[in-house]
Design goal:
One of its GO terms (molecular function) is DNA binding. Keywords: Activator, Cytoplasm, Phosphoprotein, Two-component regulatory system. With about 240 residues, the protein is of the alpha/beta class. About 25% of the residues lie in helices and about 30% in strands.
Amino acid sequence: MKIYLLEDNSIQMGRLEDAVAHELMTFGKDLSCVQSFDKPDQLLSAITSNTSDQIFFLDIEIKGEDKKGLDIAKIIRQNNPYAIIAFVTTHIEFMPQAFGVTAYKYINKTLDEASFRKEIGETIAQVFPINATTTDEFFLYKTESQLINLPMDQILYLSTSDIKHHVHLQTIHTLMDIRANLADFKKIHKKLYPCHRSYIVNTDMIISVNLTNYEATLINGQVLPVSRMKIGKIAQIVEERGRGC
């Protein structure tokens, strides 16, 4: 795991580092995985890999440039679709643009200390999934050109793409494009179920099933179609999960 901090105000940086250190302790980690920067170019130069266990806490205004942090986030996201990005700032007016780069969280600097640390802790917790204790709880897909290894509790669903031989992988944080066929993923993990000819859903992410409209609602509020032949099985899976079967 790597955590990168970008903040040009020394007082705010100290506060951020203290909050990160405090929350890392709850996971048995220390600041050795944290790198702090006040210059965007230095941060970008320090990134040596593109993995799902990278967290970026970015201020939006850097050295008087209102949207510098947003620009840096766009570069990070272009190179790493798996990274977790959180903005730590007072510029509420840029919040819609922040989510435009699939930011996980927008943390307001004006929060009281307890709330501020809670927001930091929730962000860090994304790379310490509660249920991902064995390799069975990871989504692993490998080809000659791609390697994707993500905790299953970050996977929402896979769907067909308008591009031939491409598949969309929708995670909690971002939408990824994979060169593959949807059928390649039918047996990749026991929690992935082909609910429709165009979708394979992570059944753990379903919170409700509409038996009349043939739909499944996911934890993020998104609704997926379910085929008539599969609706009964989807309902059974969700019911059994609720009973702990």
